[in-house]
Amino acid sequence: MNVFRKYFSGIRTLWSILALVGIAAIATAVALLVQTEGRGYFKDAGNDPQKVYEAYLEHVAEYERELAGDEDYNWVGIMRGMTREAVPMIAQLPEEMPDKEKARLLKSYYGDILAGVEKLKNAR
Fold it and tell me: Among 114, 115, 120, 121, which residue carries the largest CB count within 10 Å?
C-alpha cells in the first residue's frame, strides 16, 4: 500500500500519468511507423535493396497496365514522368552503406513515389 501512495498521490500522480501517456504515445508511433514503412509495397522484399527495387519496378509496370486502358487522357505519360529515373536511386547509394539501410531508404523513396502514382490512379 505504501508503494501505491508513494507513486500515486499528489503531484507524483500527475507526472506518473503523463509519463505513462508519453510511453503509450511513443509505442503507438513506433508501431505505426513499422507498419507504414514502404506502405506495404515492399513487404516481401525484406532488407534486400535489389528486391525492393524489383518490387518497385513490378508495381510501376502493373500501374502502367491499369492506366493504359484509359485513352481519354495521357495517364501513362504522366505516370512515367513520375516514375522514370535517369539514374536509379539504387545506383546512387554508396556501396559501403549496409544493405539494411539501403533497403530502408529505397522503401521510403520508392514508397512515396508509388503512393503518388496510386493517388493518380484513383483520381482518374
Answer: 114
The model's pLDDT over 71-82, given as tens digits with 9 standing for 90+, comes to: 777 777 888 888
Q: What is the 3-state secondary structure (H, E, C) of 17-42?
A: HHHHHHHHHHHHHHHHHHHHHHHHCC
Task: For the chain, count helices (H), then strands (E).
Answer: 6, 0
Q: What is the pLDDT of residues 17-71, one digit of tens each?
A: 666 667 766 766 655 555 554 457 888 888 999 999 999 999 988 888 887 777 7
- Residue in the structure block whose three cell numbers are 501505491: 4
Cβ atoms 76, 6 nearer than 8 A = no
CA distance 67 to 83: 14
Which DSSP category does 85 fall into? -
Apex CA 29: angle with CA 27 and CA 30, to 5°?
A: 65
pTM over 0.70: no
φ, ψ dihedrals at 74, nearest 5°: -85, 60
- Given a contact cutoff of 8 angstroms between Cβ atoms, the answer to whether 114 and 56 are in contact is yes
